[in-house]
Amino acid sequence: MNYTLGLVSISFREHSPKAILEAIKGTPLTCIEWGSDRHVPPEKAKEVASLQAEYGVTCCSYGTYFRLGVTPLKELPGYIEAAKVLGTDILRLWCGDKGSERYSDEEKAALFRECRLAAKLAEQSGVTLCMECHNGTYTDTVTSALQLMQAVDSPHFRMYWQPNQHRSEEENRRYARLIAPYVQNLHVFQWKGKERFSLWDGMDEWKGYLSCFPEGKTLLLEFMPDDDIRSLPTEMRALCEIIGGAK
Q: Which residues contact 11 (CB under 8 A, 6 or more apart)?
């Protein structure tokens, strides 16, 4: 199947960028989303870009912890520049600092204004900002995420998708199906509530999720069931099995 496979670096927070690149060497994982909080703060972008070249791995996205409506917008250009140094035009952001239902009309209007300004800056810089489907942010429901995408209305302002571990498979499929036109990349993991499972336990579930999206997406493994870097080959094989049978 026509997918690009990669890894989210924060899966292994305690390991160095070099150790992570060594772990994916020679595997079907050809790209990486670096996290700005631990592995690649903006000032280390050049150093890690050199490592990428050494290992023949590309950066598919820069996983910032920039929160729209919270982090001052004047800091965004620094993250955009770091992303470009890493060789990517995709940045992952969070939208807000609380669930969508907790926003007043005034707060929502202010957040949307900030998002439109960010989208304009992204357009001027030739990059795309992608919001994560994350609890405790404005995109915690498909209704609020769609509302945000339609309000900003920019090809430079898009979404990631990942299943919500606190919602049913049916609810997650609905979110995936409706948000699919706006989705750039997917984070792939298998959680139920606070429990983590191997992707081998979610084969059919993930085949169903992938059926909601067109082929060609970048699928990024995020978190191991045990946080152990030695579990990466097992989870990678599960992902390859899923896409081999995805319909």
A: 221, 222, 223, 224, 227, 232
Domain count, the chain: 1
CATH number where 183 lies: 3.20.20.150
Identify whether the C-beta of residue 119 lies closer than 8 Å to the C-beta of residue 95: no
Handedness of CA 143, 144, 150, 156 (dihedral sign): negative
Q: Tell me the whole-structure pTM to 2 decimals.
A: 0.95
Query: Which tens digits make up the pLDDT trace of 49-78?
Result: 999 999 999 999 999 999 999 999 999 999
Write a three-state SS string for 42-101.
HHHHHHHHHHHHHHCCEEEEEEEEEEECCCCHHHHHHHHHHHHHHCCCEEEEEECCCCHH
Q: Which amino acid is at 184?
A: Q
Range of the domain at 136: 4-245
